[in-house]
Automatic annotation (TrEMBL):
Keyword Phosphoprotein part of the UniProt annotation: no
A single GO BP: asparagine metabolic process
Keywords: Hydrolase
A matching Pfam family: Asparaginase
InterPro entries associated with the record: AsnASE_II, Asp/glu_Ase-like_sf, Asparaginase/glutaminase-like, Asparaginase/glutaminase_AS2, Asparaginase_C, L-asparaginase_C, L-asparaginase_N, L-asparaginase_N_sf
Catalytic class of the enzyme: hydrolase
Annotated binding of substrate, by residue: S86, T118, D119
Organism: Bifidobacterium mongoliense DSM 21395
EC number assigned by the record: 3.5.1.1
GO MF annotations, alphabetized: asparaginase activity
Annotated protein name in UniProt: Asparaginase
Length: 363
């Protein structure tokens, strides 16, 4: 374990945290850090709880104002990118966030914090991870409880994310996700629970770091070499449906999608176990592949990898692979959709799609 100590953070935790006056520095001495606001619960309040519900109300400056003393830790450069629930974000909003991150990294910031709704955060983080080729960390954060909640977690998550950005040990690992005192790779993280504060977990690999008493304790660095792809042109609107399969699924949804008015750019199957379909669903999928649409199968179990050479029954993964379907390996169905979108935008042929999934899914 390695702890990146930063005395500036000692005792700085959450809303209204205090630091001694002697520790404050001239703004010009402070490390520059960029903060982009994209809405989400971290920026929401519900002034009349229960009446109207929580809606976005804080911009990037408002997020920093939740912890006033943060201003004496870093010199912040802010951008308001979006103010919405994260399911309403578009890929173009994320590309705007990427532009902001690039521009700021080129001007010398230590790293970039992006405050985002937790619902789609893992997808956005993985999307930018595929496009980020610089050593400065992009750290996604959010909150499970709003600004008006007694158990508000946003301020601590902002503090922890700034710490993460400033920690030397966090450089060069691509895009990270920081909530509830844990730091995860975008490549491994999943929202595992709809309400827990520590919802973001890496079920297969664990966090890369934990933050304790103002220190970022780095546990490991990925052996996996990051793949960086060309940034898609805007407007970027890939059409890649994810179909969950399971008991009694004969492939009717799949057939309807493939025969619909708009042909999907690719299809992801969130399949049972280590990547298994019913025999009839497998036949439908094979027909779609034969017509030229890439079909990827991931496990819908929530963790683990697809198999490649264990089951040879109809609908088993060996047969699917023989029919041209591509296993997602350790990638989730949601990650597979993101990766396929970028590959399609990069005009990848089927061999290149396979290579990319072998690399990213680690099979
Ligand atoms: N419930 C969400 C959140 O945690 C809302 C969103 O994702 O924007 O931020």
């Amino acid at each position: 374990m390695r702890a990146d100590g930063d005395a500036a953070f000692a005792g700085l935790s959450g809303r209204g945290a205090r630091r001694s006056a002697s520790a404050s520095k001239d703004l010009t001495d402070l490390p520059p850090v960029a903060v982009g606001a994209l809405g989400g619960t971290i920026a929401m309040s519900a002034p009349r709880q229960g009446a109207t519900g929580a809606v976005p109300s804080l911009d990037a400056e408002g997020l920093l104002d939740m912890v006033p003393r943060l201003r004496s830790v870093a010199d912040f450069r802010v951008r308001n990118i979006s103010a919405t629930g994260s399911a309403s974000l578009s890929f173009d909003d994320l590309l705007n966030a990427l532009d902001f991150a690039k521009e700021q990294a080129e001007s010398g910031v230590a790293g970039i914090v992006l405050a985002h709704g937790t619902d789609t955060l893992e997808e956005s983080a993985y999307f930018l991870d595929l496009l980020w080729d610089r050593p400065e960390p992009i750290v996604f954060t959010g909150a499970m409880n709003t600004e008006s909640s007694i158990t508000q977690d946003g301020p601590q998550n902002i503090v922890d994310s700034v710490q993460t950005v400033l920690a030397n040990s966090m450089r060069g690992m691509g895009v990270l996700v920081c909530l509830a005192g844990q730091v995860h790779l975008a490549h491994t993280v999943v929202k595992t629970n709809s309400t827990d504060l520590a919802t973001f977990q890496s079920p297969d690999w664990g966090p890369v770091a934990r933050i304790v008493e103002g220190n970022v304790h780095a546990a490991w660095r990925p052996a996996h070499r990051r793949m960086v792809l060309a940034t898609p042109e805007r407007p970027y609107k890939p059409y890649i449906p994810v179909v969950e399969t399971g008991l009694g699924n004969e492939g009717r949804t799949l057939a309807a999608l493939a025969g619909g008015d708009t042909t999907p750019d690719a299809i992801v199957l969130a399949a049972s176990g280590a990547g298994h379909l019913s025999s009839s669903c497998a036949d439908v999928a094979a027909g779609i592949v034969a017509d030229g649409t890439p079909v990827v199968f991931a496990t819908h179990t929530g963790s683990g990898s697809t198999f490649r050479r264990t089951y040879g029954y109809a609908g088993g993964e060996m047969v699917l692979i023989r029919k041209g379907l591509i296993p997602a390996g350790f990638l989730t169905a949601r990650q597979s959709r993101i990766l396929l979108g970028v590959l399609v935008a990069n005009h990848a042929d089927i061999a290149a799609v396979k290579r990319a999934f072998r690399h990213e899914g680690q099979w």
